[in-house]
Amino acid sequence: xxxxxxxxxxxxxxxxxxxxxxGTMIMLLPALGESSIPMRFRLTxxxxxxxxxxxxxxxxxxANLTDNLAQLLILLAGxxxxxxxxxxxxxxxxxxxxxxxxxxxxxxxxxxxxxxxxLVIAHNRETNEQGSIHNLSRWNGYGDFxxxxxxxxx
Length: 154
Hints:
Radius of gyration: 31 Å
Mean pLDDT: 79
Number of helices: 3
Structural class: mainly alpha
Shape: rod-shaped
Order of helices and strands: HHH
Low-confidence stretches: 145-154
Distance between the termini: 100 Å
Largest sheet: none
Helix content: 55-70%
């Protein structure tokens, strides 16, 4: 009885193509692609995900991958580009969300600054003083000056 192992090069080629896409994607993902996570750990995760997804993804590749080297290299380049695109899109979405958070934080800080400015203007109207920020020294921290503010919105 002889064992036929003719299918192994095609299995290895399909695994390599899947690993190229997943490895490239995982290297660029926001959480896993950071420099604080060791390269071996990221590659191990990519290898494990490839092993899990191999039974599902391998039939999607054409048969006899190793017969035509040019076709194999074109497929490999395509897988690398797709993995790079997915990882880069995920990183860009995360960066956009981070920038949106910074903008919202700055806007809320601007709103707080505007409230303090309204209090200073109201206090200056009440005391007939010209505006300066040193007047805040009498502010009790609860949105009111020691003597109270009358006519803030007058």
